Structures are given as structure tokens and as C-alpha cells.
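Report of the visiting student (M.T.), summer placement. My assignment was to run the structure pipeline on a short list of targets and document each run. The first record concerns Gfo/Idh/MocA-like oxidoreductase C-terminal domain-containing protein.
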Amino acid sequence: IGKYHDIEVEDDVTCYMEYANGASGAFITSTGETPGSNRFEIAGTKGRILLENDKLVLTRNEVASDEWSKTSKIGFQQPETTVEEIPIPGVDNAHAMLMTNFVDAIIDGQELIAPGESGIGSVELANVMVYSGLINETIDLPMDSAAWETKLNDLIANSTHEKKVVEVSNEDFTASYRR
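After the run finished, the C-alpha cells were exported:
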């Protein structure tokens, strides 16, 4: 399945989502692009929220975009906006922060930031993305977990991938992620 690596799992994903309320979304991720980016964006009729580079940028439309498009007398213009930037240090090292918290929970009993049960939705979403790509069909949530398990077991049983043994000359993996 790997696009960039000789691996049997996905390393490049583009997912288009449709929500019951009519909203749409796109999720794009890759471990094969470098330097890559880490960007989270939500756009709506009243503005946009953008989380990137350790800051949250809120852009608010003075007039909702759907109302603007119905009432504007001049084509291709946009409503006036206000922009607010909120620094959020540590966003780019969130994974390291979660791992540190996990270790601290084991050693010191610290409360987990992200307990296991909070991740089940993320696991299901990841499974849906992979399954949808494998069968080339749109899948509704909650997914048919029995069908996914059957497909996964079939992939495992019929795997012909030979894992390459790679000698690692440096056990310092800190360069494999950004802080």
C-alpha cells in the first residue's frame, strides 16, 4: 500500500468526508513528504480557524459568506474580516508532549491527557479511510467492523510482502520528528 516506502501500510492518505449537516471536509496526511506541514483548518460561513506554526489564527467575516454571496452587488469581492492571532506554544511538539504524559502517568500516576477510550473514534476513522481505499467505496460511520475485520484478515493471510532488514547506525530517533 505504501506510496513512498516499501511498506505494507499506507504512508499517504487523502480522505474526503461528508457530514450529515451538509458540511464537507478533507484530511490529508503523509509520511513521505518532507519537510511536510502540520496544519489544521476549519472554514465556515462566518470565518476560518487555522492552527499552524504554534499559533491559532481566527479570521471572522463581518458578514457571513453565504449572506454576502446573495447580497453583494460586486462580483468576486469578499466581506471585510477581522483577524486575531493567538500564540499556542508547543503545538508542533504535541506528540512528544503526549508521550511524556504517558510515561508520567505510568511512573507518577499523572492523569492522562488522552486516555485510551478517547482514541477509539480516531482508530475507527483511520480504519474507515484504509478500508474505503481498499474497496474503492464510500463508507458511512459507524463502519461495518465485521466486514473490515474480514478484509484485514484476508490481507494478512495473503500477504507476500518481504520485510527488508535495515541496519540502523544511529539509535537517536529525535531527528525523525520535529519539536
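The chain has a mean pLDDT of 89. The helical segments are 65-71, 94-108, 120-135, 145-157. I thank the supervising group for their guidance throughout the placement.
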